[in-house]
Amino acid sequence: MSLWKKFLANVELRRIVVLLSIIAVLFLAKKMMSIILLTFIFTFLVLQLVKFVRRWIKIPAPLIVIIVYALTIFLLYSAVTKYLPVIAEQTMKMIDSVYKFYQNPDYNTNQVFKWLNSYIKTSDLMHQFKGGISVAFGYLTSIGTMGVTFFLSLILSFFFTVESQRMFKFSRLFLTSDYAWFFQDIYFFAQKFVNTFGVVIEAQVFIAMVNTVITTIFLSIMKMPQLPSLAIMIFLLSMIPVAGVIISCVPLALIGYSVGGIQYVAYILILIVVIHALEAYVLNPQFMSSRTKLPIFYTFVVLLVGERMFGTWGLIVGIPIFTFFLDILGVKSISSEKEKLKSAKN
Q1: Which of 143, 191, 255, 257 is 20 to 30 A from residue 224's alpha carbon, by CA?
Q2: Cβ pair 101, 266 in contact under 8 A
Q3: Alpha helices by DSSP H, the chain
Q4: Residue-range domain boundaries for the chain
Q5: Residues 210, 211, 213, CA angle at the centre, nearest 5°?
Q6: Nearest in space to 183 (alpha carbons), one of 15, 334, 27, 40
Q7: What angle do the packed helices 180-221 and 227-238 form, to 10 degrees?
Q8: 312, 227 contact by CB (below 8 A)
Q9: Chain centroid to CA 143: how far?
Q10: Which among 292, 296, 288, 283 is positioned nearest to 324, based on CA atoms?
Q11: Which range has the top average pLDDT, 136-140, 208-212, 252-256, 334-338?
């Protein structure tokens, strides 16, 4: 038997080589990682939604996909046209309020403000201002880049899901090709990762729902306007672990300023801090632990390490990757819903 045939016959060694090859390709494509992950997340969520709808209503899957993406685009359009003008207006009002306060004739009677004024005059304010402008420009550029990434991922996931049956049929051809062993091993790893990712997404949906309910209740007590729209925005942002709560702070604070002034801004900041602590230290470990059947200590450590190593994406994919390797190493397997049903019948 030749060395090549021995390698193909050794399934464990072969799969290790394939897994290392996948990791190497992903590392080389790290600049496209946001597009890859967002496309995967959008595709997974839409396919799961299609399966759920078709359990109750037997309508064509492409029609469900078109309705979902049309509704998504409508909500995004409404958010941009409705909230961006409000945010811009409230930002200008805040700047105008600060300017008027500074120009107040009674301003110089306060010794503290006199000291601040002298400090501003003697400090290198222009250099700091230029640095602040460059930082702000960097943030705007990153927001624009993320917008393009989001749009491309949405388009790619749409084309995949609207032709999902054709995609699956075509992709199965690789499993019977001349190098079928290679694609069969890729399919093996992909199936396990999808199973673990599905469990984590389910947990994140629960976390987003809890965040949305708590925040919406407090916003209703504060008599904030347009609560349904704000609730949708909070839910969508809460799908981003930890960071989503912080991102939602900006529009909520600006809208709160228009309703109750600085006092409402302080209330919202306190609320965001409490929700952030609740999500980071209670909801994430508890829900992730209950869904993945991992000890809370392991779940919390993985979230901390994932955030340190990969930022926000580490919070999203850290648990799936950890449970994926546990499954691969034979430490603990996470079965899919189909496998659970089969075992229950047996």
Answers
A1: 143
A2: no
A3: 3-9, 11-28, 33-56, 61-102, 111-122, 125-162, 164-171, 180-221, 227-238, 243-247, 249-260, 262-278, 284-292, 296-310, 312-328, 337-345
A4: 33-176, 188-346
A5: 65
A6: 15
A7: 140
A8: no
A9: 14
A10: 292
A11: 208-212
Residue with the two structure tokens 């984590």: 200
Give yes or no for a contact between 296 and 289, defined as CB atoms under 8 angstroms apart. Answer: yes
| Residue type, position 346, single letter | N
In order of 7, 212, 247, 325, the CA distances from 237 in angstroms are 47, 9, 7, 28
pLDDT in tens, 68-107: 899 888 877 776 777 667 666 655 665 565 556 555 555 4
Is residue 158 pLDDT above 80, yes or no?
A: yes
| Token output for 163 | 């032709």
2-48 pLDDT tens trace? 788 888 888 888 989 999 999 899 888 878 888 888 888 888 888 88
Query: How far is 299 from 280, CA to CA, in rounded Å?
Result: 11
State pTM to two decimals: 0.67
Structure token digits, residue 248: 């939602």
Burial label for 64, CB within 10 Å (0-12, 13-18, 19+), is buried
